[in-house]
Amino acid sequence: MVGLKEELLKSIWHAFTALDLDRSGKVLSHNLCTVLNVPHDPVALEEHFRDDDEGPVSNQGYMPYLNKFILEKVQGNFDKVEFNRMCWTLCAKKNLSKSPLLISDEDAFKVWVIFNFLSEDKYPLIIVPEEIEYLLKKITEAMGAGWQQEQFDHYKIALNTSREGLSAWELIDLIGSGQFSKGMDRQTVSMAINEVFNELILDVLKQGYMLKKGHKRKNWMERWFVLKPNVISYYVSEDLKDKKGDIILDGNCCVEALPDRDGKKCLFLIKCLDKTFEISASDKKKKQEWIQAIQTTVNLLKAGSPPPHKEARQKRKELRQKLLAEQEELERQMKELQAANENKQKELETVRKQLEAAAARAAEEEKKRLQTQVELQDRFSLELEREKMVRQKMEEQVAQKSSELEQYLQRVRELEEMYKQLQEALEDEKQARQDEETVRKLQARLLEEESAKRAELEKWHLQQQQTIQMTEAEKQELENQRIIKEQALQVAMQQLKQLELERKEALEQYEEVKKKLEMAANNTKSWKDKVAHHEGLIRLIEPGSKNPHLITNWGPAAFTEAELEQRQKSWKGKKATSE
């Protein structure tokens, strides 16, 4: 009922604003009660519009009466076309343009009703450019012409620069001027307007001639069918004067295609709760279009959805409201940003003034600081001069200390060099001692070999004496053995001479090593004196003390007295064994 009330109010608003204020309420109320099938209450009307200051005849004063005594009593059992025509009659004469139009008054009436359907829900009523484009497209499609989008874009730009939309009378002038229907005759334009009017206002989803099979006589009759959101009405002809019946649609209805039979083609069946209707279309295309349209209507009834054109209008309105809300929100945010920007500017101005004041204070403080700095510089200059003198003295002391340190380092380097040379001398002495030990070992080996040869010679001499005491028979044999042994003795003598020579050579080598050792000892003694001369920084490493050596016929012995005693015992033991 809310949507119906809004639709009624738009037409009533046109009629009310077109009448004289002093009689608009009474005349309009009487006509409205008549066309809306509402009981008329003249007493309430006279009471509401009595001539005093408490009941002014105005838009505001009439609306309470209209809502309370008329609109709230509307049940929907009225002719919408008749209602709109009554309102049109009251307002058209005053507002319709006097210039000639390419459309008839009836077409202008239909455009006016379509305007009320598509206009915004605010007063004064206007139709926005988006809805104008939608209506012109529908009319152009109904005429079978091509839509000129570029032409409408130019018109839309010109319209947006001046106002938000068009009034009903301006819309009639626009369509009647033929600006968007050039090349079309009046009849084509009129038929297109009528088709759009039937769809948007009368909720006609589809219409056309088809054959219907009767329920009683079972004969086929041609009828004009009109499909609406909840009913299919069929008439004798398309002038809609002689209505033959209705097919009430609901969510339980269904439509089915039938095979051709009894000489009838393109058959389909509409099943309702109480009745079944057999219908024959003119061709297969019409049959499919009607089946699809009826099935779509039934599906909408099941879902409880409004007709497609009303649902599309509602979506367009919601989209515009959403865009408007977003635009208002954007404007609000822009205002907030602007206000915030202004506040920031004020804050920046305050900060700038504070910075200027701070800069002035800083300049004064800088001036004082510079003055203080000059005084400090003078004071620091005097202190710097004194510091330079002190530093110069310290540098002289440092230079003197550096010279002493350099001398000390030079002395240390000399001592290190002496230490290296001493190490080399010690290495030479160590090598000489190793050579001496080697010669001693060689001499001891030669002496042992000489002792062994002498023992062997003594043994042979004893054997020769024993052999002389033997018999003559044995003498010859012993003579032979003696000769052999003499030969062996000669060989041994030769070897002894050879050993003598080797011993002499070893003795010579020993003398050379001894000389080297004496030279190393002299060098060591010389370095020891040098070290003692240099304040005793390095203690010379000396070889240990030596025991007195035994002296042989050929020079110093290579063994000690204890070793000699041990060897004498060994010789005596061998001699006793041989005897």
TrEMBL record:
<keyword id="KW-0472">Membrane</keyword>
<dbReference type="GO" id="GO:0003677">
    <property type="term" value="F:DNA binding"/>
</dbReference>
<keyword id="KW-1003">Cell membrane</keyword>
<comment type="function">
    <text>Phosphatidylinositol 3,4,5-trisphosphate-dependent guanine nucleotide exchange factor (GEF) which, independently of RAS, transduces signals from tyrosine kinase receptors to RAC. It also mediates signaling of membrane ruffling. Regulates the actin cytoskeleton as an effector or adapter protein in response to agonist stimulated phosphatidylinositol (3,4)-bisphosphate production and cell protrusion.</text>
</comment>
<comment type="subunit">
    <text>The SWAP complex consists of NPM1, NCL, PARP1 and SWAP70.</text>
</comment>
<keyword id="KW-0238">DNA-binding</keyword>
<dbReference type="InterPro" id="IPR057836">
    <property type="entry name" value="EF-hand_SWAP70_N"/>
</dbReference>
<dbReference type="InterPro" id="IPR011993">
    <property type="entry name" value="PH-like_dom_sf"/>
</dbReference>
<dbReference type="InterPro" id="IPR001849">
    <property type="entry name" value="PH_domain"/>
</dbReference>
<dbReference type="Pfam" id="PF00169">
    <property type="entry name" value="PH"/>
</dbReference>
<dbReference type="GO" id="GO:0005737">
    <property type="term" value="C:cytoplasm"/>
</dbReference>
<keyword id="KW-0175">Coiled coil</keyword>
<dbReference type="GO" id="GO:0030027">
    <property type="term" value="C:lamellipodium"/>
</dbReference>
<dbReference type="GO" id="GO:0005634">
    <property type="term" value="C:nucleus"/>
</dbReference>
<dbReference type="InterPro" id="IPR057837">
    <property type="entry name" value="PH_SWAP70"/>
</dbReference>
<feature type="coiled-coil region">
    <location>
        <begin position="309"/>
        <end position="530"/>
    </location>
</feature>
<keyword id="KW-0539">Nucleus</keyword>
<dbReference type="GO" id="GO:0005886">
    <property type="term" value="C:plasma membrane"/>
</dbReference>
<keyword id="KW-0963">Cytoplasm</keyword>
<feature type="domain" description="PH">
    <location>
        <begin position="203"/>
        <end position="299"/>
    </location>
</feature>
<dbReference type="Pfam" id="PF25530">
    <property type="entry name" value="EF-hand_SWAP70_N"/>
</dbReference>
<protein>
    <recommendedName>
        <fullName>Switch-associated protein 70</fullName>
    </recommendedName>
</protein>
<keyword id="KW-0597">Phosphoprotein</keyword>
<keyword id="KW-0966">Cell projection</keyword>
